Task: structure prediction
Amino acid sequence: MFKDFYAQRGEYVVISAEQASRFAKGVAGDYNPIHNPDARRFCVPGDLLFTLVLVKFGLSRQMEFRFTNMVGADTPLKFSEADNGEIHVCDDGGKCYLQVVRGGEVTHDEAAIEAFARCYVAFSGKNFPHYLKPLMEQHGVMFNPKRPLVIYDSMGFSLERLDGFSPDLALTRSSLDVQGKRADALLEFSIESAGEAVGVGSKKLVVSGLCDYNATEMASIVDEFYRLKAAYEAA
Result:
């Protein structure tokens, strides 16, 4: 599963800029320029790290992911499980990028894991413009158009069951807590399977460098998003 998006080198996982970019665009529908291979401040999508945790350790009924640092291209990453069951993703120097707390039943069924990963990542990739633009417009703020910075802080979910699993995610509530030049965005979602509610979850983003909302500049940013999307799909 997802083996085209990373390389296993001994005990380390290595993700190239090209692999990360293909995952962002092709799986998540995320056209954030920070995931372009030639980006000056390139980073591996947090959703790819999320996916690899599920691939390597299975899908648990309760999971909490906290992203602590941004991952650059070709960084050797070790996915390890601590004695208390926590999962850590660290580099060869011990710097930690992701911490995962989990509980409850676990499934290693590949079909269930892939279905949930693809479903969540497709939902998560809609951060901008689908979810964030209306929130920022409502609160009269936006990120700096010259240096937009939206950081994936954390996500978590709780599932009632793991069997007969064909998940679908839907946004149920969104909020933006503005604190000066930064804001915390909370996206809450429901998880259904064959029309039946099977769980809930939420995702937190941090938006930095806030300024007053400018409809013209925001329209340009959204236009660029869809231009990049069209160019990728045409290729």
In short: The longest strand covers residues 167-179.
